[in-house]
Amino acid sequence: MSSLTTSIPTGSWILVTGASGFLASHVCLQFLERGFKVRGTVRDPTQSSWLLEGRFKSYADIGAIELVSVPHLGADGAYDEAIKGAAAIIHTAYVTNIVPDPSEVITPMVAGIRSIMNAAIRESSVKEIVFTSSALTASPLVYRIDNGIIGRDSWNDAVLEAAWAPPPYGMSHAMANYPASKVAAEKEVWKFVKRNDLHFNVNVVSPAGMTGEPLNKKHIEGQANWVVHAYRGNKAVMDALPASFYGDVKDVALIHVAAVLDPEVKDARLQSWGHSAHWNEVLSILRGFRPQKEFVDDYPDPHRLKVSLDQTESVTLLKKWSNKPDKNGWTSLENSIFENITNPYLEG
């Protein structure tokens, strides 16, 4: 593996919250492959036992990966036990409920930040924390309008205001609550950094859409598996998001790993959006891989999102920490989509 200097020694324990998720499972695997030990928090260890099997089994057999139950991320002291002895924390866990009431989504997300930060403050072993945020914290990513220039101080405050608008709560609130919870959670992170004399470093990674290899069947289903929506012709989802940015899940995971291990990355807000694309580009790639399959028709007037951002920091980390011989930065959208659709979990 890499001979680069790391901020924490090989063999250290890494706490990964929400470990069974699409991104988090790749984060776990990459740390294990680099010689670190992983403690993953999940709601129910019995339903996440696949993290101890298959590609993870050899690591589980030597005690390099273990699962602990944290059923409620916003509960007081939720991470007090799990954090013991950890040198670094990757906090990917988030509230998955799609409900109209913002207090059921935003409130526990912010409480989860407070819980894990307070636990880290009390645990002297912690040296690095990386939080998974979202491109939506910096921009609404709205189609056909100019989303502006994204910088260090860019915030999507409008979605937070929309989510907390007075009741009655309807589906418009439900759609706003996820991005609003990400805005509120990341702002809470930086409040902690500003107000406390911390003994650990904090970085944030903000991905947009993610594509690439699923490590479990559940990663194929759900609102966020963009390639599968196009593969299956799910127009209801496609029509709502005609263009976005897409990064390969392994690349985004590696940026998280690098944000922990690279001693030069301090207080970073890493926009890690990947490639700008619209559905016609995705459909063209899919047709190339599956010429016998019928896909939905192209959109008549496609456009990419109008937004300007600098991803240099993220690309630099990919090139520095990648074990690929070419080290070109982002995995191509073609290669990522290929891994999305050539796996044992995709049907039809």
TrEMBL record:
Keywords: Oxidoreductase. Signal peptide: none annotated. It comes from the Eukaryota. The keyword Ion transport does not apply. Pfam families: Epimerase. Gene3D superfamilies: NAD(P)-binding Rossmann-like Domain. InterPro entries: Epimerase_deHydtase, NAD(P)-bd_dom_sf, NAD(P)_dehydrat-like. One of its GO terms (molecular function) is oxidoreductase activity, acting on the CH-OH group of donors, NAD or NADP as acceptor. This is NAD-dependent epimerase/dehydratase domain-containing protein. The lineage of its organism: Eukaryota, Fungi, Dikarya, Ascomycota, Pezizomycotina.
